[in-house]
Amino acid sequence: MKIKQNQIQDTNKINLQSHQEKFDFLSNSLIKTGTDVQSIVNKLKDFQVAIPSWALGAGGTRFGRFGFYGEPSNLEEKIDDIGVLHSLTQTAGAVSLHIPWDIPSDYAAIKEKADALSIKFDAVNSNTFQDQKDAAESYKYGSLSNTSKAVREQAIQHNLDVIKIGDKLGSKALTVWLADGSCFPGQNNFQTAFQNTQDSLIDIYKGLPDDWKMLVEYKPYEPNFYSTVIQDWGASLMLANGCGDKAYTLVDLGHHLPNSNIEQIVSILQLKGKLGGFHFNDSKYGDDDLTVGSIKPYALFLIFNELVYGMENNPQNPDLAWMIDASHNVKDPLEDLIQSLEAIQEAYAKALLIDQKALKAAQLENDVVKCQEILQGAYRTDVRPLLAEARLKAGGALSPIEAYRSLNVRSQLITERGKHTVATGL
Ligand code: LRH
Ligand code: MN
Ligand code: MN
Fold first, then answer.
1. Which domain holds residue 311?
2. Model confidence pTM above 0.90
3. Ligand 1: which atom is nearest the Cα of residue 250?
4. Does residue 87 have its Cβ closer than 6 Å to ligand 1?
5. Which end of the chain is more exposed for a tag (fewer CB within 10 A), N or C?
6. Ligand 1 pocket residue status of 325, Cβ below 6 Å
7. 40 by DSSP, 3-state: which?
8. Could you read off the pLDDT of 250-293 as tens digits, one per residue?
9. Could you tell me whether strands 275-280 and 321-324 are parallel, antiparallel, or unpaired per DSSP bridges?
10. How far is ligand 3, taken at its centre, from the CA of residue 404, in Å?
């Protein structure tokens, strides 16, 4: 399934005039306040978010998994699905692979397919949270932190293998997320587990090519429910610092205890030049799989305010690896990803509207009310015409969800792939 440029142009025709009116109205009012609208549209056009290869099928919980017809059943089909997302949104120009879930069988063919669809290979993810078929050692009691040297060595080797796979595809980063931890007090010695993890990460780091980054992801709990070895940004930063300059902290929005001030975390990590990547999702309680912006869009905007500030003021921090990391049980995964991409762009656009000079002046005067007015003035602006304009300029759809539905993408995928679903094996 490939969407052609003229199909998108046809669907755009219906909304073109009303888009033009909305865009003109908004840009005229923004220009009056001194906003450089063109530069915002260009930044939105350039902003690309990686799609995780595991989000393209219907997700699930440990209580069940409901299939979604027309799901991709191999890496080729997953790349095709990202091609659909990218042609509609022009924002999904990268894929993030999880190994061994997505080991390419033919590297040249996969690269060629991705190139043809303008999709790059972003960070590769290792997986030492599941036992692999025929593996000599089990990760039941941890991987890089395990008390057994043989288990640690197997986990280190897996990460080195993942780097090799990513290298063949043009990836430049390895993301390490560990499920390691304990479910009951006394089960683990915290210090031994942490030190083992540090030593193992150093061994992996030694195998990292010079132009690569290592991204260390943290999570407070799940699947372990008493302690997690890399539980928070502090643990991640200590481990990254213990490895070297090419190791960074990765922030996943859903990996925080309720009400954590995530915007402050990303801000200080950027100041220290140590924020390497970002996983987007949303959550109401302690989950990490809901559509971006579906629950706490204001929190997302505040995070983007800090990210924009950091991108403009912290040259010591590298470009970030952006990725969606969400997969749940009820929506068409492609529609869900389109909604997430839109929410990310929306928060980014609103953050770009913040008058940073005026904010700094109000902060210096301790004018707390003005500070809030500046932030909320930007937040309350309906920026959707800016997003639509950026997509239009890039050859995407004015309204990606509408286009996805009117082009009957899902039913075409079902025709092509059959009613087979990965989830149920039907
Ligand atoms: C863990 C996580 C991590 C994994 C992905 C599947 O919750 O966020 O990034 O690699 O989910
Ligand atoms: Mn994640
Ligand atoms: Mn997660």
1. 47-351
2. yes
3. 9
4. no
5. C
6. yes
7. helix
8. 999 999 999 999 999 999 999 999 999 999 999 999 999 999 99
9. parallel
10. 27
Q: Helix crossing, 37-46 with 5-32: angle to 10°?
A: 140
165 belongs to a structural domain: yes
Number of domains in the chain: 1
Q: Which candidate, 45, 54, 35, 147, places its Cα nearest to that of 96?
A: 54
Give the CATH number, domain containing residue 197: 3.20.20.150
Ligand 3 centroid from CA 77, angstroms? 24
CA of 395 relative to ligand 3 center, distance in Å: 32
With a CB cutoff of 8 Å and minimum separation 6, the contacts of 277 are 123, 173, 175, 215, 217, 248, 250, 251, 320, 321, 322, 323
**By the 8 A CB rule, do 50 and 39 touch?**
no
Among protein residues, the one with the nearest Cα to ligand 1's atom 4 is 177
ipTM of the predicted structure?
A: 0.99
Closest residue by Cα to residue 319 from 255, 351, 273: 273
Q: Are 280 and 253 in contact (CB under 8 A)?
A: yes
- Output the residue whose Cα is nearest ligand 1's atom 9: 177
Atom of ligand 1 nearest to the CA of 125: 10
Q: What is the pLDDT of residues 4-62, one digit of tens each?
A: 999 999 999 999 999 999 999 999 999 999 999 999 999 999 999 999 999 998 777 77
> Could you tell me if residue 21 is inside a domain?
no
- Provide the angle, in degrees to the nearest 10, between the axes of the packed helices 384-394 and 333-353: 110
Q: Is there a domain that residue 222 lies in?
A: yes
For residue 352, how far is its CA from the centre of ligand 2 (angstroms)? 25
**What three-state secondary structure class fits 277?**
strand
Quote the tokens at residue 245. 């300059």
Whether 288 is covered by a domain: the verdict is: yes
What DSSP string describes 141-160?
A: T-STT-S-HHHHHHHHHHHH
Nearest alpha carbon, ligand 1 atom 11: 325
